[in-house]
Amino acid sequence: MELNSEFSEKFNRILIYIVILTLFFVFIFQGIIYYQPLTYQLSLIDKLEGELINYEAVYPAGDVLLNLEHITFRVVDPYLASLPEAKIYLNNKQVGDFTNLQYTLIVESGDRIILDASDYIADFFIEITPSEDLKIKEEVIRISRGEQAIIIVEPAD
Q1: pLDDT digits over 9-63, tens only?
Q2: Domain locations in the chain?
Q3: 126 burial class (0-12, 13-18, 19+ CB within 10 angstroms)?
Q4: Cα Rg, the chain, nearest whole Å
Q5: What backbone phi and psi angles, to 5 degrees, belong to 129?
Q6: Residue 82: its pLDDT value, please?
Q7: What is the DSSP string of the chain?
Q8: Positive or negative CA dihedral for 34, 36, 37, 39?
Q9: Between the CA atoms of 24, 25, 26 and 27, what dihedral angle is there, to the nearest 10 degrees?
Q10: What distance in Å separates the CA atoms of residue 72 and residue 105, rounded to the nearest whole number?
Q11: Cα separation, 133 vs 155, whole angstroms
């Protein structure tokens, strides 16, 4: 029994020392954090505040293309709500569909656009509105039952 009591006494002393040291370090660290000049010395961002930026490290922004050539397709039929199976292809790659009955496409002159409505059995009209830098042959096209329409984009004169 004596061995157990000796061990528990030593263990209790060690625990008390650990608690006292922990409280001491918490108190010291709180004081260090509260002391303002030391906080600034520890913070890298606060050290760099107010320094001039090295202009060699600042790169200019790239060119921004604000005048993109585009074509807008709009289905002109008040009875249609959506045409999700009518696909739009740009240079033989599918880029969209007529789920919202209107689609705007960024194009360049010489691009080949295919409007594929071969899954539908109804005829419908599509209004085509190009940007001012582009020209197309027809502004309204009719896509008949099961057909495709091919549009070649040309530059405006």
Answers
A1: 899 999 999 999 999 999 888 877 776 666 556 666 666 666 666 656 556 667 6
A2: 2-57, 70-155
A3: buried
A4: 37
A5: -120, 105
A6: 86
A7: -HHHHHHHHHHHHHHHHHHHHHHHHHHHHHHHHHSHHHHHHH-HHHHHTTPPP-GGGPPPPPP------EEEEEE--TT---EEEEEEEETTEEEEEETTSEEEEE--TT-EEEEE-TT--S-EEEEEEE-TTEE-S-SEEEE-TT-EEEEE-EE--
A8: positive
A9: 50
A10: 6
A11: 6
Q: Which residue type does 147 have?
A: E
State both tokens at 120.
Answer: 């539908």
Return the amino acid letter for 27: F
pLDDT band at 94 (very low <50, low <70, confident <90, very high): very high
* Amino acid at residue number 92: N
Residue whose tokens read 């608690």 = 19
- The answer to whether residues 131 and 69 touch, using CB atoms and an 8 Å cutoff, is yes
